[in-house]
Amino acid sequence: MAEAEEMGSRESRWSLHGMTALVTGRTKGIGFHAIVEELAGLGATVHTCSQNEANLNECLSEWRKKGFQVTGSVYDASSPAEREKLITTVSSIFNGKLNILINNVRTNILKPTTEYTAEDFSFIMATNFEST
User: Fold this and answer.
1) Domain-located, residue 32
2) Closest C-alpha to 103, from 21, 37, 42
3) How many CB atoms lie within 10 A of CB 24?
4) Does 132 reside within a domain?
5) Any bridge partners for residue 71, and if so which?
6) Percent of the chain residues topping a pLDDT of 70
7) Can you tell me the distance from the alpha carbon of 8 to that of 89, in angstroms, rounded to the nearest whole number?
8) What is the C-alpha separation between 92 and 127, in angstroms, rounded?
9) What is the 8-class DSSP label of residue 126?
10) What CATH number does residue 10 fall under?
11) pLDDT of residue 77
12) Which of 13, 44, 57, 109 is the most buried (most CB within 10 A)?
């Protein structure tokens, strides 16, 4: 009953029916799940991506059971070629129309700053900033 009431109040707040959304991030994160489920629950068609295919497939199965319109693809945000591939995939799935982008990708290397290598810095910048 509470879920039905929540859905009713969600629908009365607003609707994203007909909208498309791309959500990037880690499939293990609670924020990632909340974002995808809120957008899909409001009626948006969502595409998401993850580096881990098994985790992605598990999430997609869960969302299909809930009746959400969510597709997904495997993606490495640090790779320029993978970013281009994602753009092509999303453009094809959504017929060139993307209304919402949630770039929830981030990474970090936990070690003292003085120990960072140029490769570490490049990886962090490519993942956290260039992926946007």
Assistant:
1) yes
2) 21
3) 22
4) no
5) 47
6) 90
7) 33
8) 23
9) I
10) 3.40.50.720
11) 82
12) 44
